[in-house]
Write a structure and sequence with these properties.
The protein has 142 residues and is of the alpha+beta class. Helix content is 61%, strand content 16%.
Length: 142
Amino acid sequence: LSSRRDEHQQLRDGLKLQIAELQKVIRSRRDAQQQHQRQLDGQARHNMPELSFWESNLCLKIEGAGSEDRLKFVYTHVDERDWEKECWFELSMGRREYEVIACKPRVEKEAVNAVLERLNETRELAGFLKGMRALFAEAVKE
């Protein structure tokens, strides 16, 4: 009985060590998660004014495109004859290189690729959005 008791005590001690190690891991992960959430909350304060800026200055709406890694950018006030006409494109952001999946109205592929190449080199979305708006403005003039 005493040998069995010793075995059970050793097992219990081993389990207590495992529990303590897991609790440390859980604590560190929880702390990392809370830190990440604080960073997201800090960034969120900047996101709304920036989004409002893009919506008002470029008449731009950003929507989901039905896929996790795609966004749809919709411009209005591009066509001087019809302010409500929408021009849009879908941007795939799933890989390292961004890709324009579709756009309406039709824009020359070479022109889109030139603007897209600049985005992939610089990672500056602002210049890309302005460039796409300019391409749409040219397309609706024709």
